[in-house]
Amino acid sequence: MFFKSLDLTTALRPLLLPDEILLFVQDAVGLYEGKYKIQNYQNGHAYLTSHRLCYVAAEDPRKYSVAIDLKEIDRVESQAGFLKSSPKLTIYPKPQKKKTDKSSSATASPAVAQQSVLQPTLSLSHIPQTNFQQNPLSPKPINATWICPICSFSNPVPSNFDPATANAATNLPPCLACGIKPPFTTVLKAAISAVASRESPLLSSVASPAIAQDTDQPNAKASLSRSGSRGTVPCPRCTFVNHPSLVECEICGAPLSAGSASANRVDSPAPLFEQSHIANTEVSESIKLSFRAGGDKTFHERLRGALVQRKWLLQNAPPVPSPSQGASSEGLPSPVASVEGTLSPAPRHSGVGIAGLERRGLEARKKNELVIGNAFEDLEALMASAKQIVALAETLARESGMTTNESSPETSAVLSESAAALGMVTTKDMLNSGSESLYLSELARDLAEYLTDDRKGILQREGGIMSLIDLWALFNRSRNGVELASPSDFQKAAELWEKLKLPVRLRRFKSGLLVVQRYDWNDEKTIEKIQAWMEELQRVPPDDPVPWDWSLFGRAVTAQEAAHRFKWSVGVAAEELEMAEDRGVLCREEGIEGLRFWRNYISSCGYGDLSRLAI
Amino acid sequence: MTTTPPFPFPPTYNFPPFFTPQPNTTTRHAQLEKWSSLIQSWCRHHRQYRLSLIDAVESPLFHNTALRKRLDLREARAVVDWMTKSEEEGGGGRRAEWIPDGPKTVAWIWWRRPEEWADVLVDWVEGTGQKGSVLTVYELIHGEGAMSQEFHGMDTDVMLRSLNVLVKRGRAQIFGGEGQEGVKFF
Questions:
Q1: Across the interface, do A548 and B17 touch by the CB < 8 Å criterion?
Q2: N or C: which terminal CB in chain B sees fewer CB atoms within 10 Å?
Q3: Mean pLDDT, consecutive 10-residue segments, chain B of 186 residues?
Q4: What is the SS3 assignment for A526-590?
């Protein structure tokens, strides 16, 4: 299994392959290789799709994002959170055919390690192998383990721990399972025994687990008395002098400052993996996802579902022959064209003429009934067949749009293209229902992608700028009435664009009108466009004779004309013209025709005519 | 006055937004300055010293018949108000002054301020060697000696104000009764 490099979209999300569906998103996820934290991959979003498991770091996402193909995953184990340790999912790769013996030892998991403690006889077969794998060239010295005196979990000795130079002041990482710092002696003994076992593997491998286990209890006691005098923590409330490994005061229960759980779970206790950039790195043992903000259960569930469904197998499958091909080739709008393709073809009676058409219609309706009926049987099934249902809803909408004669062809075009967009749209269901901020940020990314998608070109069509309300309407219509975004969520999501460094920006005009525009769009560009237009008006003679010197003044423009020319909406055009007026580029004329704008001849012409008037 | 040639309007006069008060302060300032200079030139052209806004709003000054645009009384008053203020107050350098009787409908338009007129008078007196001589105000305004001068046919009130400036400066002395004023230049 390899960490694969990952392409990101403009909204800094994984670029999905064709047919790939986003299943779940979780933020505040850290990545582990084996038992080691991977630097720079400790705070990011985990995206579960139907084909891949993607990790995108919150900081510098273009650099630190990797993906793992689901087809290479053998199994997934869930590990609940324990004291200070976050809940984790351990993902084991499928054994590679070429080196089966190696990978079997590589799957030495925490569970196996724990077993070896409980049953030392079993570990006999494991330890030599592990040591064999950890030859001196190996960059990962995971050969030594120490056993936590509190929870008896076997932890790796940190890679930078050198028994020769370490002393009691050396900073030791706490236990991976319970998060409590080990007594120095425990780690030291484990390290020494590991070194000894490397020198004489067969001899000491039998002894080392036993020694570690035997010395556990006395050591813990000894360290209690020893460290009590040195690294004690006085309680801030009752001043009782507590043992340093205690999180709460023994007497009054007040949280101790040293042990108080910090909100920043990035500083998780595990040692660091040595490489900081892991794209195209082989996963030797297993990887772990640490869910520091929860969401592990749903993630696990969805991941298991995706592993069972094996959507990636469909990628190369030939398309199912569609019985509706005849109907659609006749040019008739087939309401089931996209739905039937996924269903098994029914035995087809060759109908001729009107009777045939009617029968075909009947068949189509029956199939639709079946799809709808299946989908509504229970919610799980609805989610599974969501794509079919959406496609069905869409074709129905398109049909009704045809009959009711949609006013704007452009909006209906956008609507009809929206099926493609739906694959990527984040719904509340994909996220942990508890985390509102994640939903908002994902919605913001959705919106950014929706806006910058060149296939739809929504911003371009609107002249690079559109009002938030228009966008909201368009966006919700493209969702076909499923998982609509509420106006307040929508606005909050739009406000996040700047923070998430997405390529679109929300902007507030003086009047309070909120508009959406590309991040590189600014007033200067608008003014340039308006000025070019005004100069053009000075060159082109107006249609009707005008009482003023058009070559000098040009012509008046209204917001409607500007909207038409720049393909803005009228509200946006009015705001942009007023912005230009504020900048002194335009000036206004109020008359019975309404408000019109001119090139600002009043202040731009200088004093040429004044000096002439002074005689 | 009827024989004066038509007034050459500046190009801005035919610019439709010129007749709409501009909301942008910079543009508004430029607009007021242009109006001020237009009013001054207009009055100078027509040798007018006082401007009655009631009459003026119907005149070509404030009413562009070609564009069918006009400055209404309220706006015209705003322009003249601006002209009455000094530049320090953000106005037009006291180029106008409301004539105090009644509401703000008639104003002096100072296309030359009384101080400037006083300078013109002194220059003329010195230039023609009339220093120390005595002239009546009537002679100054309507006399043949000052026929070619700009102050020929000047409003008597403006002339008296200009002469008073000279008196304050100690360059002239006014004597005589109402309507019979004489002036001696030093």
A1: no
A2: N
A3: 72 87 88 89 87 86 86 88 82 81 82 85 83 81 76 82 86 78 81
A4: HHHHHHHHHHHHHHCCCCCCCCCCHHHHCCCECHHHHHHHHCCCHHHHHHHHHHHHHCCCEEEEE
Domain of B23, CATH number, reads 1.10.10.570
Nearest to A119 by CA among A210, A207, A233: A210
In a domain, A51, yes or no: yes
Name the minimum distance, in Å, from the CA of A572 to any CA of chain B.
19
Query: What is the three-class DSSP state of A218?
Result: helix
Identity (one letter) of the amino acid at A225? S
Q: Which of A196, A222, A242 marks a domain boundary?
A: A242
Give the contacts of A444 (CB within 8 A, at least 6 positions apart).
A11, A493, A494, A496, A497, A500, A502
Tens-place pLDDT, residues A455-514: 777 777 777 788 888 888 888 888 776 778 888 888 888 888 888 878 888 888 888 888
Interface confidence (ipTM) of the complex = 0.80
Instruction: Answer yes or no: are the C-beta atoms of B151 and B139 closer than 8 Å.
Output: no
DSSP per-residue string spanning A90-104: EEEEPPPSTTHHHHH
Residue A201's alpha-carbon distances to A79, A135, A194, B49, in angstroms, are 31, 12, 9, 118
A319-357 pLDDT, tens digit each = 554 444 444 444 444 444 444 444 444 455 566 788 888
Poorest-pLDDT segment among A48-52, A176-180, A378-382: A378-382
Taking contacts as CB-CB distances below 8 angstroms, the residues of chain B near A601 are 12, 15, 17
Q: Tell whether B94 and B127 lie within a shared domain.
A: no
**Which amino acid would we find at residue A81?**
G
> Which residues of B sit within 8 Å Cβ distance of A?
8, 10-12, 14-20, 22-24, 26-27, 29-31, 33-34, 37-38, 41, 44, 66-67, 69
Instruction: Tally the C-alpha atoms within 13 A of residue A189's C-alpha that lie toward its C-beta.
Output: 22
- How far, in Å, CA of A210 to CA of A36, rounded? 25
Domain range enclosing B156: 114-185
Place of tokens 């290789």: A33
Q: Which residues of A touch B24 (CB under 8 A)?
A: 581-582, 584, 587
Q: Which residues form the domain of A346? A: 318-405
